[in-house]
Amino acid sequence: MDLILWRHAEAEDGEPDMARALTAKGQKQARRMAEWLTAQLPESCKILVSPATRTIQTAEALQRRYKVVPELAPGASPFEILRVANWPQGKEPVLIVGHQPTLGMVAALLLSGQPQYWNIKKANAWWISQREPQDPEGLHLRAVMAPDLVLK
Predict the structure, then answer these.
(1) Does domain 2-149 have CATH number 3.40.50.1240?
(2) Measuring CA to CA, how many Å separate 97 from each of 3, 48, 79, 80?
(3) For 104-128, what is each residue's pLDDT tens digit?
């Protein structure tokens, strides 16, 4: 299974937290990462998005169908993210558009075995693959991508 963790792009400060929108810079970041993801993601990829405005706006840059999942809201546990993604039993790739610190904790849990506070920067994507659900030897970090690395 492939699990892609995409942190939302730069958002405005303010309250309420769930209504924070992307800044102009964040919109550009989302578009650039969407270009790269579009070239990489198979058509069968499920896209699951937090209900926060900033994550929805980030996902919309892909111009693909997505599902808003309340369990992906800020403060979700890394175990809840994996449950929603059906990791590692799922057959199709899953892209999660979510938040820190949860996405970093998911990456740490999968790659080190413990939910540590790893930082995934705004608009970055981490792609983790595991070929067989019960084979920890087959788990690997396939890619880490930042919007400023996407070639124009």
Answers:
(1) yes
(2) 11, 6, 15, 14
(3) 999 999 999 998 999 999 999 999 9
